[in-house]
Structures are given as structure tokens and as C-alpha cells.
């Protein structure tokens, strides 16, 4: 990213450094998405088989999402 600072009649071009990697917010958003996916999959399995334990299915799917 480039920007210009003006000093009188002169323009000084500066480069800014950009950090590569995920921010805390991006990581939290990704984790929230994984939890939603895991919950939806667990709920779908519960609907298909009402005898399944929803909490156990959620935990299994949450682990799968983290691995993927």
C-alpha cells in the first residue's frame, strides 16, 4: 500500500508494511463458523435418528470441523 505525504511542494512516497496472517477477529469468526457447521450437522443427524445424543454428535462434528 502506498500513500503520499505532502511537505510544501514536495511529495514523499512511503510504503507501509502489511502483516501477513490472520487477525484475532478472523480466527474467532472462523471458529464461530466451524461451530455453526458442527451444530447443523449434529442437528441433522438427530432429526434423522431421534435416539442419538445431540451433545455427543455436536462434539464429534466439532472435532471434524477443526481437523478439516
Uncertain stretches of 5 or more adjacent residues: none
Radius of gyration: 23 Å
- Spell the H/E element sequence: EEHH
Tally of alpha and pi helices: 2
Approximately what portion of the residues adopt beta-strand conformation? 15-25%
Q: Percent range for helical residues?
A: 55-70%
Cross-sheet strand order for the largest sheet: 1-2
Helix/strand class: alpha+beta
Characterize the biggest β-sheet.
2 strands, antiparallel
Number of strands: 2
First and last CA, distance: 33 Å
What value does the average pLDDT take? 77
Specify the overall morphology.
rod-shaped
Structure report:
With 68 residues, the chain is α+β, with helices and mostly antiparallel strands. It has a domain at 22-68. It has helices spanning 24-48, 54-67, and strands spanning 2-7, 10-15. Strands 1-2 form a two-stranded antiparallel ribbon. The longest helix is centred in the middle third of the chain and has 25 residues, at 24-48. The two termini are 33 Å apart. The relative contact order is 0.12.
Task: Summarize the helices and strands and which ones pair or pack.
Elements: E1 2-7, E2 10-15, H1 24-48, H2 54-67
Antiparallel strand pairs: 1-2
Helix pairs in contact: 1-2
What would the keywords be for this entry?
68 residues; 2 helices; alpha+beta; rod-shaped; single chain; 57% helix
In short:
With 68 residues, the protein is α+β, with helices and mostly antiparallel strands.
